[in-house]
Description:
CATH class: Alpha Beta
Number of domains: 1
Structural class: alpha+beta
CATH topology: Glutaredoxin
Protein name: Thioredoxin
Helix content: 55-70%
Pfam family, one: Thioredoxin_9
Order of helices and strands: HHHHHEHEHEEHHH
Organism: Chryseobacterium arachidis
Distance between the termini: 17 Å
InterPro entries: Thioredoxin-like_sf
Largest sheet: 4 strands, mixed
Shape: globular
Strand order of the largest sheet: 2-1-3-4
CATH architecture: 3-Layer(aba) Sandwich
Number of strands: 4
Number of helices: 10
CATH superfamily: Glutaredoxin
Amino acid sequence: MKNYWEKSISFEEYLEIGKHRLANPATQQEIDYKQYYELGLQRIDRTLKKYVADEEQVKELESKNFDGKILIISEVWCGDASATVPALVKFFEGKNEVRIFLRDSDKSLISQFLTNGTESIPKVIILDKDFNVKNSWGPRPKYGKELLMKYKADPEAYTKDQFYNDLQIYYAKNRGKDAVQEILELI
């Protein structure tokens, strides 16, 4: 894990890479994902402006005396990531170091943290101070998983568009609080 940590980037670099890929797409995927990069950057910006750490959650983190690190596997174009990654970065700011590992740059890390056989992101890896994996979380909070299961159970009655719309409304209202809480429970 230490090698992955050393290859990871800061949140600021993550944003700059996303902006650069949007303005100067270099691959077919970056061209095809243009709208997702735009949406992701807009959502990240909104979360950064609106996120306020919950005092009870801050106290809970302090009570755990967690001296480890948070490594997040992500990509700017991902809808789940754009809602949770900035909230996590802001929550842990000044407390625990958070770094981002770009999933699409090296699949060897995500292959160790698959979700039902898929490379779903974001994936949050909780590391102790010696870079041992303490736990992992992702790609979305429990409520988001429930919405996904509802869609998968009956995609004709609950369409993909309804699922995405409901998920984004949830993310906009929740502002990362559930993701932070679920991660705190794993620390």
